[in-house]
Write a structure and sequence with these properties.
Rossmann fold; 2 domains; six-stranded mixed β-sheet; about 20% strand; globular; Small_GTP-bd
Length: about 210
């Protein structure tokens, strides 16, 4: 009697297991197809954010070999496209003024990487910088996106070091960084120091997650 009662349960479990395996196989197959499609395109969508006057546009211009001597505040957004390591990067440089931050969410879709730019010399607003970044990292649509933090303006004597910036931002806090790939790089948008190192890390990290190895 006990065996008869257990038999349907065992059969049901077997069916569930078979269904789970089929679902897993389908999901893996679909994921492989998507990765192959991504590999063919080899495009990355990078969202560059941070408080106003952090140096976002200056960094983008430096990447693109454009003049950086006169930079006006970004009141909307700019899109720049360039290639690095055989990948095409579409960088969305979005204004960081307080009145514009509520519009950041309009650019979250399909983001592969976030570049968060910090004015390391703006010690008064570092807590505000941390708060805005933490809110960003709780966004579901940005889950899994690689996070590069540029501790910018290292050419200024008043700038906090990379380690000091990391401490102030609370990097590694499980609430905001659990499972998140992130990296901090000291840089200067004016001199170009650290920019290549940072963007190459971002590209390689995204590639390791999204594109299939050749």
């Amino acid at each position: 009697t006990i065996l008869k009662k257990m038999k349907p349960t065992t059969t049901h479990s077997t069916r569930l297991l078979s269904l789970s395996l089929l679902t897993l196989a389908f999901t893996m197959g679909l994921w492989t197809i998507l990765k192959k499609m991504k590999q063919k395109e080899k495009e990355m969508r990078i969202l560059m954010l941070g408080l106003d006057n952090a140096g976002k546009t200056t960094i983008v211009r430096k990447f693109n070999g454009e003049p950086t001597d006169t930079i006006a505040p970004t009141l909307g957004f700019n899109i720049k496209t360039f290639e690095i390591d055989n990948y095409t990067l579409n960088i969305f440089d979005v204004g960081g003024q307080k009145m514009l931050r509520s519009y950041w969410r309009n650019y979250f879709e399909e983001t592969d990487g976030i570049v968060w730019v910090v004015d390391s010399a703006d010690t008064i607003r570092l807590q505000q910088c941390k708060d805005e970044l933490n809110k960003l990292l709780l966004e579901e649509r940005l889950a899994g996106a690689s996070l590069l933090i540029f501790a910018n303006k290292q050419d200024l004597k008043s700038a906090k070091s990379k380690d000091e910036i990391a401490e102030v931002l609370g990097l590694g806090d499980p609430k905001h960084y659990k499972g998140r790939h992130f990296h901090v790089v000291a840089c200067s948008a004016q001199t170009g120091e650290g920019l290549e190192e940072g963007i190459r890390w971002c590209v390689q990290d995204i590639a390791s997650r999204i594109f299939m190895l050749d």
